[in-house]
Amino acid sequence: MIRAYKFLMRPTVRQDQALSEMLRDHCGLYNGALQERRDAYRHPSKTGVKYGMQSAQLKDIRAFDPERHGRWSFSSQQATLRRLDRAFTAFFRRIKSGETPGYPRFRGVSWFDTVDFPKDGDGCRWDSTPHGPVTRVRFQGVGHIRVNQHRAVVGKVKTVSVKREGRKWFVVLTAEQDQPEPLPPAGGSVVGIDMGIANFLADSHGEFVPSPRHGRRAAAKLEAAQRALARFPRVRRDKRTANHRRAVEKVAGLHGKVRRQRLDHAHKTALDLVREHDFIAHEDLKIRNMVKSVEPKPDPENVGVFLPNGAAAKTGLNRSISDAGWGVFLTILTSKAESAGREVIAVDPRNTSRQCPECGHTAKENRPTQDKFHCVSCGHSAHADTVGAVNVLRAGLVRRDANPA
């Protein structure tokens, strides 16, 4: 089992500068490799450039420019080239599946925030020796950096990554560890959950978890901070003033706080479900499709004129779905359930809130409002989200019985 750990680093001023230079040089390597692939594609011969060819050039690149590229780890540079290769692999895979993906783009220095080291001990070294609350990690070209290790790392460290978030630096470790001891059985308790907007989730027992709406609560502060940032003219990064940098950091700090609040809520909610139930069923939501923008609706009688298409309402719904953070929660729930020895099953969400749990009648009219369910066949009434959770649980139990472990 692979588990990730994220710790805050405390670099000195010189180490902070060296880390920034490392990101800058890896970003330049990424963009240079991307430009080479673009030029090769535009050439009349249409010669393809692959990762192996670009990786073989690293030795010459490091010898030609030792100040920019020779000082960093060879393995981390290979990882950056693999990152570009994965972007192209995903691009062509989406084209084959009929999607319309964007071509891999060049990265600005502020948009390249991570450098990966594929193996602990190759260009980096995680010091597992206890130093009280402070541990150290070493990176080639940077030195030993103090780390605030707030919990123990269990297992053997496999990979190490450097990540920048605003003005803070983090080290991200992945460790291979044995399967942890499962939690004691919860008495065979089973539950189905239905994700929502008004309520974060409703379960099949009739209970609700309110939606925290962290993004909506911070919207006023974010709007003011982004408005202040927009007052500054667009200039090159090295020409920006201190006030401009502070405005950027203000916006980034607010977004970071909302992200941490969502993660905290998702962890606590998932932990409660895993502790209380042995089996959890949830909807297999295609969130990316759910937050797509509405297609424009041209007026057939007037060229260049568009008819109302409900885009404003759909934009508000998309914002609420993104604010809820369903995808992050379901990922965390699956991970915690795996560690605790619980079973989680995703089921098809179609008609889960329109099918009567009493008589099985399915109709759009069964759900007259967002939160009300009233069966037009048998007259059963309940909260629509609770009905959805009950149907999700039944579908999950059917899948579990059809595919026994």
* CA-based shape: globular
Query: What percent of the residues sit in helical stretches (DSSP H or I)?
Result: 40-55%
Instruction: Determine the mean pLDDT.
Output: 91
Sheet-strand content, in percent, reads 15-25%
- Indicate how many domains the architecture comprises: 2
CA-to-CA gap between the ends?
19 Å
Strand order of the largest sheet: 2-6-7-1-5-4-3
| Number of extended strands | 14
What is the helix/strand order?
Answer: EHHHHHEEEEEEEEEHHHEHHHEEEH
Sequence stretches where pLDDT stays below 50 over 5 or more residues: none
Largest sheet: 7 strands, antiparallel
Rg over C-alpha atoms, rounded to the nearest angstrom: 26 Å
**Subunit organisation of the chains:** single chain
- Helix-and-strand structural type: alpha+beta
List the total number of helices. 12
Describe the secondary-structure layout.
Elements: E1 2-10, H1 13-42, H2 51-56, H3 58-64, H4 66-70, H5 74-96, E2 114-117, E3 124-127, E4 134-139, E5 143-148, E6 156-165, E7 168-176, E8 190-195, E9 199-203, E10 208-210, H6 214-217, H7 219-230, H8 242-276, E11 279-283, H9 287-290, H10 311-324, H11 326-340, E12 343-347, E13 372-374, E14 381-383, H12 384-402
Parallel strand pairs: 8-11, 11-12
Antiparallel strand pairs: 1-5, 1-7, 2-6, 3-4, 4-5, 6-7, 8-9, 9-10, 13-14
